Amino acid sequence: MTHVVIGAGLSGLVAAVELASQGREVLVLEASGALGGRAQTHRSEGFALNLGPHALYPGAERQLAELGVNVTGGVPKRGLTMEVGDRIAPLPGDAVTLLGNGALGWNDKLRVGWLLGRLGWIDADPLDRVTVGEWLDAMGLQGTAKDVALAVVRISTYVNASDRMSAGVAIRQIRGALDGVRYLDGGWATIVDGLLERARELGVVVRSRAKVERLEVEAGRVVGVMLRDGERIATEGVVLTLSPKASVRLLGEHARPSLATFAADSVAVRAACLDVALRRLPRRHPSLILGTNEPTYVSIHSNVAALAPTDGGVIHVARYLAPDERVDGATRAQLEGYLDRSQPGWRDEVEEVRWSPAMTVMHAIPEARDGGLAGRPTVASAGPTNLALAGDWVGPEGLLADACVTSARAAARWIARGDREAQGVTYRSSSKVCGPDSESLSSTT
Ligand SMILES: Cc1cc2nc3c(=O)[nH]c(=O)nc-3n(C[C@H](O)[C@H](O)[C@H](O)COP(=O)(O)OP(=O)(O)OC[C@H]3O[C@@H](n4cnc5c(N)ncnc54)[C@H](O)[C@@H]3O)c2cc1C
Questions:
Q1: Which residues line ligand 1 (CB under 6 A)?
Q2: How do beta strands 313-321 and 269-278 pair?
Q3: Is residue 27 part of a domain?
Q4: Model's pTM, two decimal places?
Q5: Sheet holding 221-227, edge to edge
Q6: What is the residue range of 358's domain?
Q7: How far does residue 39's CA lie from ligand 1's centre (Å)?
Q8: pLDDT digits over 313-372, tens only?
Q9: Alpha helical stretches, state H, 352-427
Q10: pLDDT tens digits for range 408-418
């Protein structure tokens, strides 16, 4: 019988490939007309425009390669700057960029240098329950030095909530970023294409415009998936890759209370994004301007990845939104103002502009109060015994797309293990929402 994967974003497609490679018959159901979810890229006239600035971290790249999906692209290393006051200065990454930095006073240089030096070896585990703000205060960082540190946290994690975000999670993520993130040739759609190709080779069926409206649950197992048009699909097991709130809505009375609580309490990470394709790029440098006075980001992704024709360029401009921040016309004007200053004449060269005032980047901030990633629901914590969760808010490993890939693979393995052991195994339900994904199955002889 068919296994159903709900959602055809990165998480759903990875789960489908992983399940199918274990010999399962898999059907992917996607509500919208397009596949890829937030990893879609609009491609036209030689330009490739992702949905907001996307950089692939080494962990996700490694795991995708294991699934047979190899991507190419470039690592942004040159022309990385930050805005301090009204000055543009090199982003401190080593002794040269730090000591020669005209925007930082000697005290700030010492403090930032001390922090950079510690990042490589500091024990992040005890800091999982400490907020980024508390950690920086304890390190004695103030003023400009603190602003620079917060900007580095934002660019690595997308989170603009230093009073909530776990410092341990931030430190590990910054280390991953320092290993080199990649902008992808052709955009993130190349990941989606690669996964779809693998899925089709393995016999996976993918249906778009197939919105799942309800799950039919009997004796603690999902037995049917109901589509909006009334169709019923019988199923052996389900991987659910929606947001926490949408997952709880779909599960209804069958959702574990702890999952419902997480969905109600978690705070999404959002960004306002201005994505711009220019026929001619007025200036190629600086490649990156990271805001330290304001939570902003401007980056010419086409400087290191094949995303535009020779003279053209693709620039992503973004504002990392605080949890309750409202977006209005002033936000867009602010982001356009950055382009007016760094790319004079850009308005005459526009091939495509996309304004997304509040994109959900990640469904839940990893909060210090919950112990960081350990506070996220596990793949096995939804409720029904043959339904697994996956997404950027699931599981104790990884952030952003890394969390999607890791949780999707874990979800598929958990479902497959459940199938294999169905005859001789009972499910021992745990009331705990967190913990290792292996907690839920045990043999009974
Ligand atoms: C602006 C922005 C920048 C980002 N930058 C980075 C970055 O630099 N690095 C990084 O690693 N990650 C980044 N991310 C995060 C990354 O894009 C996401 O974590 C990832 O794409 C999420 O994949 P997903 O499959 O879990 O969810 P989604 O992509 O949201 O997919 C869920 C799918 O489910 C479908 N669906 C919803 N309801 C139903 C239903 N009832 N029935 C059937 N289908 C349904 C949706 O249409 C969607 O296609 C960024 C995200 C954004 C928005």
A1: 6-12, 29-32, 37-39, 51-55, 57, 60, 211-212, 241-242, 246, 271, 273, 359, 361-362, 391-392, 400-401, 404
A2: antiparallel
A3: yes
A4: 0.94
A5: 212-218, 221-227, 232-234
A6: 42-55+269-362
A7: 6
A8: 999 999 999 999 999 999 999 999 999 999 999 999 999 999 999 999 999 999 999 999
A9: 400-420
A10: 999 999 999 88
